[in-house]
Amino acid sequence: MALRKRLAMLGVCAWLGMAGCGGGSSEPYDIVLSGGRVMDPESGLDAVRHVGIRGDRIAAVSTDPLRGAVEVDVSGLVVAPGFIDLHAHMQDLEGNRWQVRDGVTTALEMEGGVWPVAEWYAERAKTGLINYGATVSHVQARIRHITGATSEDDPAIGRLTPAGSPAWSHQPIEPEAFPDLVALVEQGIREGGLGIGMGINYTPAASPQEIYRLFELAAANGIPIYVHVRGMGLIEPAGSFGAIQEMLSDALTSGASLHIVHLGSSGLSQAPKLATMIDAARARGVDVTTEVYPYAAASTNLEAAIFDPGWRERLGVDYDAIEWAATGERLTEASFARYRRQGGRIIAYVIPEAAVDSLIAHPGIMIASDAVPLIDGRGHPRGVGTYARVLGRYVRERQALTLMEALRKMSYLPAERLRPAVPEMERKGRIKVGADADLTMFDPARVIDRATFDNPTQASEGIPHVMVNGVFVVRDGQLVEGVLPGRPVRRTVPPAP
User: Fold this and answer.
1) Cβ(387)–Cβ(461) under 8 Å?
2) Is the pTM of this model over 0.85?
3) Which of 123, 236, 253, 276 is 20 to 30 A distant from 478 in Cα terms?
4) Would the CA dihedral through 417, 418, 423, 426 be positive or negative?
């Protein structure tokens, strides 16, 4: 203790970010979290500590009691870094209100991305309950390039190819036009996009050459590619195996960083083998990561190219594996055709449970929700219960992984994935002096998801407190009204030479 006090006097303690520092200060903190089980996946700290917060930062992690203007007894609770969701399509206030009760303090639109980027960030700032950010969308840039559409409701988006398929997804771009597409994506990079988001499975006409050109662009700008791979299914060469091979090859030869989204739903029964391929590529120097959500069902729109003819053979299922989300009905050949013409959200029960279990327990694979908006209270529950489900079902009940490893997958690893492009992420995903006060407090004996496929509008339990940038957004299990402390996660782009 004498050494700690001496270091504190010299200001060295805060500089080092030492656990146990700060206890000797006579100045009260803005908020003190007293007596919780502090778990820091960066240092491995797992012990009872007192956390002092000043402004939006952690100012002390102490073995000694602290004084604060607000003191909250969190004894019996785990104090963890707020969960960072790399894959969240619920980018509005309603979606944030569900996710924050699941412990999420940062939710990012990385797979689909956005375009124009600056406009999206400006609009999103109005409803920032939690931290937010996005990549540059290849799909939306492609829509703009092929159709000229300037907004989501522009009727030009509906332009079809001669074969009757959407032009933006099924019309090739010739190599001589690649510079025009690249210019659109470059605009988003200059506006601070966190990487390039790709949904190649939704744009089957995007040639390998088109995709590789964007890998080169990402490498040149030091940003990652976040990708929904080209194929999902059991029939090669257009299945899951070939799709992963394409991405690993592109990353290796271009030098771009790569993150493969939802390996469970993209890999299906082959997912465990694909995870070992990704491990092997990483061992050979490829900067590649991946993620999984803890459910054996996927969700997307029925009109998507994924359901082009041959989908039953590719996925190894029949019509009754598909549920129309609005009503809960399982589809037949006739209802599939009718709803596909109409377009809308479905739930697809296509992922083997064993594959999901394997990926969640696999070292280094992150947890990400792929949260999709609920429509009239219906839809996939993953945007409401992903993180509590992992903590309750996979850690406590099944003991498939340790609590510290789960927290690492939910906070520290996503922050590290982002950190090369966004150095400020060094302050997230960990608990230490100087880190952002994004904190999730939960009862490890009670935390559990309540959202189901039949009734997804049931918030997770056992997460009484959540803070974003030093502000309580959930207190005693209830949403705090009238606060919007979320901030943009955005690249600072140096001026052009």
Assistant:
1) no
2) yes
3) 123
4) negative
